Amino acid sequence: MSTVLFASTDAGTLGGGVRRVVHTVAQGLAERGHDVHVVDLEPVIPIGRPQYTQHVIKPGPTRWARRRTAALLASLEPGYAVMTSPDAVTRMKDLLGRHKGIGQYPGSYAHARAGRHFATVRAHYGTLDQAVFLSPDDAWQFAEHALLPNTWDIPNPLASWPHEVSPLDRPRVLAVGRLTGVKRFDRLISAFGRTARGDWELHLVGDGPDAGRLMVHAVTEGVADRVRFRGRIPAGEMAAEYRAASLVALSSDHEGLPPVLAEAASHGLPAVAFDVSGGVRCLIRNGETGLLAPPGDVPALAAALGALMADTRQRRRLGSAAREHARRFRLPRVVDRWEELFTHLRR
């Protein structure tokens, strides 16, 4: 078995969802017998009893944090140090010592290219033992355009596998995420407004600074009585939300490999989304497990929503295929992929 350390040291890049993924993978590897450690800026309360070790290095003077991190790495048996963001790579790559360095990127190629991360990935990830991305498409694009010779792809895992699925007979579209600009729920509300029929409702689960603006937008679009702002719902209660919906929608400007699509698929829900990343395409096979619309194309998103809202048989066909496809994201399959990477690096 191997020593594995995951370093989540970027509060700005890593949101709660990405941190939960790190701790889920850590638990999966620990259950296989690996000696797993997670370095984070703040304590994370995992689901269940953790079999790995958490180390909290709170933000402080850079030299102090580096000394703490270097001391921890030196105290561990040689293994694998997984740096889970560009910031973690730049902070830690010269502290690795006897450990193999793995740089993970939690977003999509398109997102990196649109901001400052692409330059960091291009400058630093190629010097590591391996660079890991969320989908084969993202790995290929980084290899081609960032000239990385060491790419690998591993998706985010599902934390659990539900035994009950949605009957897909309730007139409800579900969307989940922070009510912030990048999620573009305004576009989803507009698309829903174009196609709303009968007693269909759009349920938005999440909170954020754009809640008031989105409520006004729902009034402007004439669907205020059909858009339900549900606020934050605890993760342990989300299974009931998926079972109560008949399809899930995603309208973001950019995404990595969005957990909501995998979770919805595991409950037998088809999805409608903007085609904004390799991760989205990895989760939604257009016409097979859901429907994709060109990025930002509200009429196309409305047409896709309308097609599934109007056709129960099609929802059930796509939903059944989505659940079968989602099996590849179950935690044991993802842990297998990590172990394949470790075997590859030992050769």
UniProtKB/TrEMBL annotation:
Residues of the Glycosyl transferase family domain: 166-324
Name of a matching Pfam family: Glycos_transf_1
InterPro entries referenced in this protein's UniProt entry, alphabetically: Glyco_trans_1
Alphabetical list of Gene3D superfamilies matching this protein: Glycogen Phosphorylase B (3.40.50.2000)
Superkingdom, natural source: Bacteria
Gene Ontology MF term list: glycosyltransferase activity
Key words, A-Z: Transferase
This protein's name: Glycosyl transferase family 1 domain-containing protein
Organism from which the protein derives: Acrocarpospora phusangensis
